[in-house]
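Researcher: We're teaching a course module on how sequence relates to structure. For the next exercise, students receive a sequence and then see the predicted structure as C-alpha cells, so they can try to spot secondary structure elements on their own. Here is the exercise chain.
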Amino acid sequence: MRIVIVGTGTEVGKTHVACALLHALSARGEDAIGLKPIETGVRGAPEDALRLGGIAPRHAFGDPVSPHLAARRAGVTIELDEVAGWVRAHSRKWQIIETAGGLLTPLALGITNLDLVHELAPAAVVVVAPDRLGTLHDVSAVLCVLGRPVSVCLSAPAHADASTGTNAAELGRLGIAEPIEFPRAPLDDAATQKAAALLLARCSAEETV
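Model: And here is the predicted structure for the students to work with:
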C-alpha cells in the first residue's frame, strides 16, 4: 500500500508523521520503506531522507527554497513521470512517501505536489497541518483542492499559540475533518504509537484513487 504525505505548508510535521508510521509498521514486522523523492536545503546528508530510512532522494538540492527554484538554480528540471518511476522502483508492501513543502508547492513550471499525488495513484493521502493559528483555513483549503477522501493529522507545533489544543475539536465541529493529533514525542512514546496505529487503520480503510 502506498501512503502519500502532503502538508498545508513547509515545516508542519510531515517527517515526524512519516517516521511514526514507519516505526509502527516495523514494530509489526511489515515490509515497509520511507521515501522522500525531492528534498531541498540539503547540506551534506539529506536529513529528512535519513530519518525515513536512508534512501537518498531522487533530487536533493542545497538551496533551502521551493523545489522548482532549487532545481532551476542547479540546472535541473524535475520531471513528474521520472519521479513517479523512481518511487515505483522502490516497491514494498508499504510505501510511505513524503512530499517536499506544501500541497501546491511548485516542482517545475506548471507542476506541483498535487500533480505528484495524482501521478502516484492509487494511494492513500495524509494531510499534515500544525496545531496553530491558521489551521482551520489551511486544512479547508487543502481538502478543497484535493477533492477526495483523505486522512488529516495535526502535529503539535514547536511553539503553541492561543489556538493550539482547540483546532482538532473545531475542525470536527465545523464538519471539515476528524483529525488525528500527533504529539511532539519520541516514536516509541505510547501517544505517538497510538496516533500512528489509528492513522494506519484509516489509510487502510481509505478509498485509494
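Model: If you want an answer key for the exercise: The first helix runs from residue 14 to 28. The chain has one domain: 2-37+92-205.
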